[in-house]
Structure formats: structure tokens, C-alpha cells
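Model it.
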Amino acid sequence: MIEEEVLFPALADQAELNGLIAELQAEHVQLKDLVDLLRTRSDRAVLSSFANLLEQHIRKEERVLFEATQRLLSREQLDRLALMIAPPS
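Modeled.
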């Protein structure tokens, strides 16, 4: 995931985000596990668990991680991250 490849390493020296990043990484593992389960078992309960976790995860990234990233990193750092995530064509 792009967060794990680009954003989390860029935030590694921001101690106040260590707990949040660990939590988001654990959620990535849970989401992947649920996707793997859905590939072998089409189950309404599993799909519901996946959808709920995904929605909460996205909201946490938007409202907590991305806000903190904008607050803690300089404009130059943010611009470098943007180029790493979406290089110009």
C-alpha cells in the first residue's frame, strides 16, 4: 500500500504518530486477511466486517493521519511525497 511504501517511512521520525501508524498497519493486515477470506468464502458477515473496517480505516487516515502529516511536515516535504506518490507523466 502506498502509505506503507511512502508515507509511513516519511513519518518515522514523528514519535507522536508511532502508535497511530502501528494501528493503521495492523488494520492493513486485517483488511488483507478479510479480502483473502472473501476470495474463498462469500459470506455476508465477512463482507460486512470488511466494509466496516475499511470505512473506519479510511476515516482515520483522512481525519487523523493526513491532518497530522500536513501539520508536521514542511511544504517541501509534502511536495516530495506528492511526487513519490504520483510522479509527473
